[in-house]
Structures are given as structure tokens and as C-alpha cells.
User: What shape does this take?
Amino acid sequence: MTTSDHAARALWRRGCLDWKLHSGQMKIKDALKRSTGKLFVGNCARQFGKSFELVTEAIEVALKQPNSRIKYATAFLADLVEFIMPNFQTILEDCPSDLHPVYKSQKSKWVFPNGSEIKLVGLDKNPDGLRGNAIDLIIVDECGFVSN
Assistant: This one.
């Protein structure tokens, strides 16, 4: 195992995935950290990597906060399949096996060994999918396309 592999494993264990982001995505992440409100809106151009950054954020919360409940929504269920799932797969490629979540397709959620869950919701098919008790983080990707 190379030095960079050891470093990557150590960062995964700390729930720090900043090294996967480009400088523009880091500006979004830093602004989110500085935000004091309950709502944060990032306005970026197409193909900027917003979804990649948001998926990274969701995974970091899941790793750092055992038993956390995260909802990740898009306006359309098809977007989850076409855009979001590939981002999860890319980000998780080098995740250590003891930290790697399992995707439960019947429930549309990633389940982590520490008990955390990231539930994927297509709001066109499940408009009440963001409801629930004790949710630690809600991400609505491409919220400009959500009709209700």
C-alpha cells in the first residue's frame, strides 16, 4: 500500500473527504460551514460539480455522526439514477471496506456500518419523502426544479 493509500484511508476514517473536491467545490463547502442559518442555497453553473460536493457532504455527515439520518432529494426520481447514484459510486470507490455503506435498493438508501443512513428521494414520486423524525441533514439537489 502506498503512502497516498494510507493517507486516503486515514482521511476516510476521520470522515474528511475534502481531498476529493476541486477548489470551487471547497468554496461552497466552506460557505456552508460558515452559514449560521438552517437553509443554505448554492447557486452554481451547470457541470460545476454541485451534486458531487453534496454527495460528499452527505457521506461525511454519515461517517462522522453514527446513527445519523440524512435525506437526499432530487426533483425527479430519474435524476437519482442518472446523476446521483454515479456520484455515490465514484466517491465510494476507495472507501475502506469496514466503512463502506451497502445500498438497499428496496428502501432507496445507503446504510453505513455505524448505523447512519442516507435515504434517496425522488420528490416527483414521493412528495412527502422529506418528512420524518430526527433528520440530521436534508439535501435537495436541483431544488429549482421542485414543483411543490
